[in-house]
Design brief:
six-stranded mixed beta sheet; 253 residues; Deoxyribonuclease I, Chain A; 12 strands; single chain; 6 helices
């Protein structure tokens, strides 16, 4: 009895960027419209966002959009989007988001904050890709302290184990704040995840600060991918659009 013919390879382009709520380093200038142009130019199928503004009722300038920032960035390019609120404060909130060219079947936002520390979350979305079925995507923003990150990575591993079937493709991307490179081994051991830049170049990409990157804070991890490769993004204009440089990759499913 012959086995079923495997589906044709499906190429998915992913981008992750910490938007810094639309401001440059040290909040010197509001650049969200310019950031939207740069995000569009990558032509990603799925965009992972961190520190993206949701509601905001404070004083704003003329370039501040009326819609939440994730909707402004999605515009007409990404008809599907999900938002997970992490931090809530007087006048507004911010969190993680996923923008997708494909249907988002369901979403859940996992609060992984520790008491009396900065708000952090994992936004888990299930995408429906043509001829491929479900693909899981998690937008990540972890804590600044290593002990917090270790705990949050353990929670991420539990989510992967409990909510995502092992054969299903998985993308995990975002701001890990992991300058000591501790996450790779933990995520490969507990969840079978491989980091795209580590696999291609032997080390994680340096992304912070954006103008002169010294620390490898941002990541793109994959599981059940036939192949994957980093995409080189130009230093300009990205070095002036946030405090983090973005990462992009092509992933063959």
């Amino acid at each position: 009895m012959s086995s079923a013919t495997p589906p044709h390879p499906f190429l998915l382009r992913a981008l992750t960027v910490n938007t810094h709520k639309g401001f440059t380093l040290l909040n010197r200038r509001f650049v969200l419209p310019e950031l939207r142009d740069a995000v569009r130019a990558v032509n990603a199928d799925v965009v992972f966002l961190q520190e993206v503004q949701g509601e905001y009722n404070g004083a704003v300038g003329a370039s501040w959009p009326q819609a939440p920032h994730y909707e402004f960035l999605a515009d007409e390019i990404w008809p599907q989007f999900a938002y997970g609120r992490n931090a809530v404060y007087q006048g507004g909130d911010h969190g993680n988001a996923v923008l997708s060219k494909y249907p988002i079947l369901r979403q859940i936002n996992h609060d992984v904050s520790l008491p009396k520390h900065e708000a952090r979350g994992l936004l888990h979305c299930v995408l429906d890709l043509p001829d491929r079925g479900e693909v899981h995507a998690i937008s990540v923003h972890l804590g600044l302290a290593e002990s917090h990150r270790r705990h949050q990575i353990e929670l991420l591993c539990g989510i992967v184990s409990e909510e995502i079937p092992k054969p299903v493709p998985l993308l995990v991307a975002g701001d890990f704040n992991d300058w000591r490179n501790k996450a790779h081994q933990m995520l490969e051991r507990c969840a079978g995840l491989q980091e795209v830049f580590v696999q291609a170049h032997g080390r994680a990409a340096k992304t912070f600060p954006a103008r002169f990157p010294l620390l490898p804070l941002d990541r793109i991890y994959v599981r059940n991918a036939r192949a994957h490769r980093p995409i080189a993004l130009p230093r300009f204009p990205w070095s002036h659009l946030s405090d983090h440089a973005p990462l992009a990759a092509e992933i063959m499913l």
